[in-house]
Specification:
heterodimer, A: alpha+beta, Thiol Ester Dehydrase, Chain A, 26% helix, B: mainly beta, five-stranded antiparallel beta sheet
Chain lengths: 129, 160
């Protein structure tokens, strides 16, 4: 039985790599050079390096839901991109059940980097049966 | 703005699952021919692959704003797009799943502009938020996924 306060933690990645950003660009179709082109990101856009697509962090974070409840149980999933994810970051998602109504549970998720800063904050509703 | 045909393909789901670091065997049906592979929750973002006009993809014979001989192939002022291009950032993304999405589905999309609002930012000056709603429908015209994107534009690049 799913109950309010149930929580799961999932290490999403030990080390965000530049190659994973390229891999996600290819799979998603979002080839924004900010996520794959160090020269463009630093010299033109003025960032310290390339950084992850927000949607990559949201996609990785979704694993905590689908590992827990199954890929077809998710009814809603929404995220706020709080701060950027950089190559080298270690990401951990923590999901907590905040409400249960029949066989539908409400879950909040925070994904944090190695400094403990929240990079993505999400809510979801899932079917539990 | 619309994508006429977004076929949900098992091989594409497998590549997407690899890219988000997801080893769940449910997503790897392409390897053994399993039908009806489920799509990960954020998979519909990959509909960009099927939008002929998607701006964040290099196109044959057209200049690209990423680096080549120079640091950018175009003036930085023309850099745009929803996810971090120039001074535009992807602030929020929300999905509602009306039913599970699986390989074999063929979707069409239709998009519309939603609400807009402004906020005073702490570091970036004025923040201008805008919503973009996309509906994904199956071959029968039934709604499968509704996506709501919130973009934010600032008057300058946020200092890191």
């Amino acid at each position: 039985m799913t109950a309010v306060g149930d929580t799961k933690e999932l290490v999403l990645t030990e080390d965000v790599t530049r190659t994973q950003l390229v891999q996600y660009s290819g799979a998603s179709g979002d080839y924004n050079p900010l996520h794959s082109d160090e020269r463009f990101a630093t010299e033109v856009a003025g960032y310290p390096s390339i950084f992850a697509h927000g949607m990559l962090t949201m996609g990785m974070t979704g694993r905590v839901l689908t590992d827990w409840f199954g890929p077809e149980a998710v009814l809603t999933y929404g995220a706020r991109f709080v701060s950027q994810v950089w190559p080298g970051d270690r990401l951990v998602a923590t999901a907590t059940v905040t409400g249960v109504d029949g066989d539908v549970a409400e879950v909040t998720i925070a994904t944090r980097n190695q400094a403990g800063d929240v990079v993505l904050s999400a809510t979801a509703t899932v079917r539990t049966a | 703005m619309a994508t006429e045909r977004f076929p949900i393909e098992a091989g594409h789901i497998m590549m997407f699952a690899r890219a988000i670091g997801d080893a769940n065997p449910a997503y790897y049906g392409a390897l053994d021919g399993t039908a009806g592979v489920p799509a990960p929750p954020t998979f519909v973002t990959a509909s960009a692959q099927f939008d002929p006009d998607y701006p964040l993809r290099p196109k044959p014979g057209q200049p690209w704003f990423g680096s080549g001989r120079e640091a950018t192939g175009r003036g930085a002022s023309t850099v745009g797009g929803g996810d971090g291009g120039g001074t535009g950032l992807h602030a929020e993304q929300h999905y509602t799943y009306h039913r599970p999405l699986r390989a074999g589905d063929v979707l069409t999309t239709s998009s519309r502009t939603g609400e807009g609002w402004e906020k005073q930012g702490r570091r970036g000056g004025r923040l201008i938020f805008s919503e973009f709603i996309t509906e994904f429908r199956d071959a029968a015209g039934e709604l499968v996924v509704t996506a709501r994107t919130v973009g934010v534009r600032t008057e300058k690049v946020i200092e890191q």
